[in-house]
Design a protein that fits this description.
With about 525 residues, the protein is of the alpha+beta class. It is built from eight helices and 39 strands. It is elongated.
Length: about 525
């Protein structure tokens, strides 16, 4: 009887155990089995060349994450979303995991040894630093980074990782050359009023290094300033027009161009400070710059009729009004027995009369040269007029003569004097680049204030200000503060060439571009 009871109890235990196992298989064990482990192809090993790596065994609809620095793809901030085969070009450890609604899969790992460098214990990754995000708009920014040490070998790739949540990162390759120093990238198509995170990276045979993580927020499109108004708004005229820019938002600065270029990026843009003259057919464009970014562009097309290449120039207005005022001041000084002041006023009147007599003589010589088609003589007289009075009309007329003579070089005048260059100014992507040393000398800085380093950096000491310009950089620095330029400074035949806009920004000079004859005036 006892034996029979024990037999029934044993049978019951076996039945319970069987049912338990079946339930586990149908629940927990079945759930664990829903997240398949991916496979990596090839599965690692030693190779003499770069390998194309694919991830296999991916269930439909699931997301695959991978890393190439050996970190955990379920948590690492260097992970990438797998979208197709990727290249392993140096010794790296690839890790892959799948994420689906049931959770994470196990991690697949493959170690790749590329070439003989993998066995060299002296290999080490480069040193890279993340810079800042500049020139922010509602949909773009200029990201900067710097490689201060290329590590054990040649840099093969560098750029940035970009993310909105510090979790899913997008890789942006800025270059694949053996780079050293600063680098930039201008991502576009960003979302407005959105916080982004980015970090620089650089790769060599010793591995990939990452800079620190930096954040920035794109501008709110609705916060951008409104476009200014150009008055008059363009049209056809028989004489030169005085143009003003109106409706500039309080606290903002308006910039304008007269060659039809974009004032938010052009090297010929001028900060608006008051009415300016349009004396020939030109397209004026203006935009306002505020703390939130650039406004849209206002445009006005001016057609000045009756101009010909041989047209007699219009001289500047007489200073008769000023002389009349000075004569009154002279009489008041005499009546007040202020003899020393009266003598000074008299000298001013004499200087103005002498200058006008001299200018009148030069204008007669110019008209005679133009009427006789003596272009070389007319050019020489115009340069004397520019050196004497620096009038706008003289530059425009000189440009017509240059065009008549077929002169294709860019001419630069600084404070009325034409500059000589051993390396000629050039135009790159629509921007005029000039040798910075020659410009600095022309603005009164000796060679001792212009330094040159072996890594291609020019340092200028302008009084209490320090200006730093690096080769192939999209930023220049004034006392350590960055200023963005849309065409990089570059070395040509041993001379550092910079966009003209740098001159106006850093040296606080007015830069005027005369497209006919390609003349630049710095004043």
């Amino acid at each position: 009887m006892l034996i029979a009871r024990r037999s029934k109890l044993a049978s019951l235990m076996i039945m319970i155990t069987t049912i338990t196992i079946m339930l586990l298989m149908q629940t927990g064990l079945a759930l664990a089995a829903t997240v398949a482990t991916p496979s990596i192809s090839p599965g690692g090993g030693a190779f003499t060349a770069a390998q194309s790596v694919t991830v296999l065994n991916i269930p439909g609809g699931d997301t695959v994450y991978y890393t190439i620095d050996g970190s955990d793809p379920t948590t690492s901030n260097t992970r990438s979303i797998y979208s197709g085969a990727f290249t392993v070009s140096q010794s790296e450890t690839v890790k892959v995991a799948i994420l689906d609604p049931a959770g994470w899969s196990s991690i697949a790992t493959a170690t790749f040894t590329i070439g003989s460098g993998s066995s060299n214990s002296s290999l080490y990754a480069p040193t890279v630093e993340t810079g800042n995000a500049a020139t922010l708009t509602s949909n773009s920014a200029i990201l900067s980074g710097s490689i201060s040490n290329n590590g054990s070998d040649t840099i093969s790739e560098y750029g940035f990782y970009l993310s909105t949540d510090e979790n899913q990162w997008v890789k942006i390759t800025a270059g694949t050359d053996n780079h050293y120093g600063s680098f930039n990238y201008n991502p576009t198509g960003l979302a407005a009023a959105t916080k982004y995170y980015f970090k620089a990276y650089a790769t060599n045979p010793g591995g990939t290094a990452y800079g620190n993580e930096i954040s920035f927020t794109t501008l709110d499109q609705d916060a951008l300033p409104t476009a200014p108004t150009i008055s008059p708004g363009g049209g056809s005229f028989t004489t030169a027009q005085s143009v003003t820019i109106l409706d500039i938002p309080s606290g903002d600065t308006a910039y304008y161009t007269t060659d039809g270029s974009d004032p938010s990026t052009s090297s010929t843009a001028v900060a608006y400070s008051g009415a300016f003259a349009v004396s020939q057919s030109e397209t004026v464009q203006a935009a306002a710059r505020g703390s939130a970014g650039w406004s849209s562009i206002a445009s006005a097309v001016f057609t000045i009729n009756g101009q010909t290449e041989q047209e007699t120039p219009v001289p500047p207005a007489s200073q008769g009004g000023q002389i009349t005022q000075l004569k009154q001041e002279f009489a008041d000084a005499i009546s007040g027995n202020q003899m020393e002041q009266a003598a000074q006023i008299l000298k001013q009147i004499e200087a103005i009369n002498k200058a006008e007599d001299n200018m009148a003589s030069l204008e007669e010589q110019l008209i005679a040269a133009l009427n006789g088609s003596k272009w070389s003589s007319a050019e020489a007289v115009l340069k004397m007029i520019i050196n004497t009075a620096n009038p706008d009309w003289a530059y425009s007329e000189l440009g017509q003569i240059y065009k008549q003579q077929g002169n294709k070089n860019i001419s630069v005048f600084a404070n009325g004097d034409e500059l000589d260059f051993d390396v000629q100014p050039i135009i790159v992507d629509g921007r005029t680049l000039v040798p910075i040393r020659t410009i600095a000398n022309a603005l009164g800085l000796p060679d001792s204030d212009v330094g040159w380093s072996e890594d291609g950096t020019v340092t200028i000491n302008a009084g209490s200000d320090k200006i730093t310009i690096s080769n192939n950089a999209l930023q220049v620095y004034l006392n350590g503060n960055p200023y963005n330029i849309d065409v990089p400074a570059q070395i040509v035949d041993g001379r550092m060439m910079v966009p003209l806009r740098v001159i106006s920004q850093l040296f606080n000079k007015n830069v005027q571009w005369y497209p006919v004859g390609q003349i630049v005036e710095i004043s």
